[in-house]
Design goal:
The chain has 100 residues and is mainly alpha-helical. 61% of the residues lie in helices and 6% in strands. It has a two-stranded antiparallel ribbon. A hairpin with a 5-residue loop joins strand 1 and strand 2. Helix 1 packs across helix 2 and helix 3 runs antiparallel to helix 4. The longest helix has 21 residues.
């Protein structure tokens, strides 16, 4: 249930809108990215097990956002930290917490 709620919160991470010219512009705010980074930090391990290709796609989008260079330095730092957590195979962020 919690995973579904957080997924709906981060749905705006990849939200798009059509501009007057007919092209699709991505709408990313710092807040949306902060929520998305938090979500994938906490849920990345389980998502890696359930849908590795899907998670890879999400990280490719994060990589693209970093390369665009149009985000706050703080958000850039957090995304880079998320890549480090992923490289460490989400150690410290287990798929199922022991208390459950």
């Amino acid at each position: 249930m919690q995973l579904k709620r957080q997924a709906s919160i981060t749905s705006s991470f990849g939200a798009s809108r059509e501009s007057a010219s007919g092209s699709w512009d991505h709408c990313f705010s710092s807040r949306n990215l902060l929520v998305a980074v938090g979500f994938y930090t906490e849920c990345g391990s389980i998502l890696q097990n359930l849908s590795p290709k899907g998670l890879h796609g999400i990280f490719e989008r994060f990589r693209g956002i970093l390369h665009e260079g149009e985000i706050d330095k703080h958000v850039q730092f957090l995304i880079e930290g998320l890549f480090a957590i992923r490289k460490a195979k989400f150690q410290g962020y287990p798929a199922v917490r022991p208390e459950f």
